[in-house]
Amino acid sequence: MLYVKENGEITTSAYAKLYAVAERTARKDLNELSDKQILKRVGETNLAKYILN
């Protein structure tokens, strides 16, 4: 969450690199945060970015 606050957004690939996880895991985690309305997904599938809701 600190990364998103500082940078305004996060992508799946940035999350994967930051936390050393597979992109599939990063996508799952970010989607869960989006489902909980903590983050908001913006954009299309491959170009999606997540911002604070």
Would you write up a description of this structure?
With 53 residues, the chain is of the alpha+beta class. Helix content is 51%, strand content 19%. It has a three-stranded antiparallel beta sheet. A hairpin with a 6-residue loop joins strand 2 (39-42) and strand 3. Helix 2 (12-19) crosses helix 3 (23-35). It starts with a helix and ends with a strand. The model has no long low-confidence stretch (mean pLDDT 94).
| Ends apart, CA distance between termini | 11 Å
Bin the helical content: 40-55%
Oligomer status: single chain
Tell me the radius of gyration.
10 Å
Q: How are the SSEs placed, and which strands pair?
A:
Blueprint: H1 2-7, E1 10-11, H2 12-19, H3 23-35, E2 39-42, E3 49-52
Antiparallel strand pairs: 1-3, 2-3
Compact description:
The chain is an alpha+beta fold and 53 residues long. The protein has 3 helices and 3 strands; from the N terminus they run αβααββ. It has a 3-stranded antiparallel sheet with strand order 1-3-2.
